[in-house]
Amino acid sequence: MIRVLDHGPIRQFRMARNLWGKGVYWTAAYLVDGLLIDTGCAYTAGELTEALKHQTVRQIVNTHSHEDHIGANGVLARERGIPILAHPLALPVLAAPRSSLALRWYQRALWGRPEPSLGRPIPDEIATPNHVFQVIPTPGHSPDHMALFEPQKGWLFSGDIFVGGRDRTLRSDYRIGQIIDSLKRLLILGPKLLFTASGSIRSNPEADLAEKIRYLEETGGRVRELAQAGMNIKDIRNRLFGREMAMRYYTGGHFSGLNLVRSFLADPPTP
Q1: Are residues 65 and 144 both part of a single domain?
Q2: pTM of the model as a whole
Q3: Which end of the chain is more exposed for a tag (fewer CB within 10 A), N or C?
Q4: Is residue 195 part of a domain?
Q5: How far is CA 4 from CA 29, 52, 120, 131, in A?
Q6: Backbone φ, ψ for residue 146 (5° rounding)
Q7: Are residues 99 and 165 in the same domain?
Q8: Rounded (10°) CA dihedral 102, 121, 198, 161
Q9: Residue 178, class by beta-carbon neighbours within 10 Å (0-12 exposed, 13-18 middle, 19+ buried)?
Q10: Containing domain of residue 144, as a range?
Q11: pLDDT tens across 173-182, in order?
C-alpha cells in the first residue's frame, strides 16, 4: 500500500504492508531534486518502484539500515542502476541482510527481509542539481543513523531519530542517551520543516525537538532519582509509565517500558 503526496518540491511516499485491507505501520520515503531518501520495506518495494517509474532518481540515501528503510534498494539498483549511499556501518547490512538482520517475527510480518544491495560510504555533504544536503550523524536509534539537512531551505529529514509523542517504551538495542544527544544536534541546526520517517511533517520543528528533549531529560532524571532511592526497575516503570503497552507483548519484549528504564540508567546523555 502506497500513498504519494507532494509538499512543494518534495514528494513523499508513505508505505505500509496491506493486511486485511489496511496499511499496518506506515513508513515514508522522500524524493527531492533526484535524491531518494530511504526506500521503505520489502513488501512495498514493487509499489515504490512503480511509483518512481517516471521520476528522475539519481541517488539513494538510507538514513539507517533497518529493514523498513532499505527494502527497495536492491530492485532500484538492479533495474535502474541507482547508486546507494549509507553510513559505513550500514554497508555490511545492505550487502547481506539475511545474515546481518536478526529479524523477529513481527518484523518479518510487517516489513519482510530486504534483498541485498551494494552501497557506498556517504560523504559529509550530498549535492543535487539545486541543493546541498548536510549529513548529520544521529546515533541512538541505531549506530549507523543519519539525518539530512538542507540549510538554505531549512529542510530536515530526520529518519527515525525523531518520533513524536511521549515515549513509554524503547527497543532493547536503542540508546536513549545517544538519542537525546542527537536530538540536541538537530535542534542547533534551526530547522524550518521536519520530514519524519513515519510520514508526519512538522512545521514547527524547533519547538517539537525542544519539547521532546525536555520530556526525555526530565523523565531520565526522574528514573535516576527513583533508582537512587532504592526502587527497582519494574516499580519505576509502573510509577512513571504504568503497565506495559500492547507493543511489549506482540514484539516479544523487543519494545518495552522496562527497556526504557534500563536505557535511562545505563546510557545517560552527555552532560
Answers
A1: no
A2: 0.95
A3: C
A4: no
A5: 10, 10, 28, 22
A6: -140, 155
A7: no
A8: 90
A9: buried
A10: 136-189+201-271
A11: 999 999 999 9
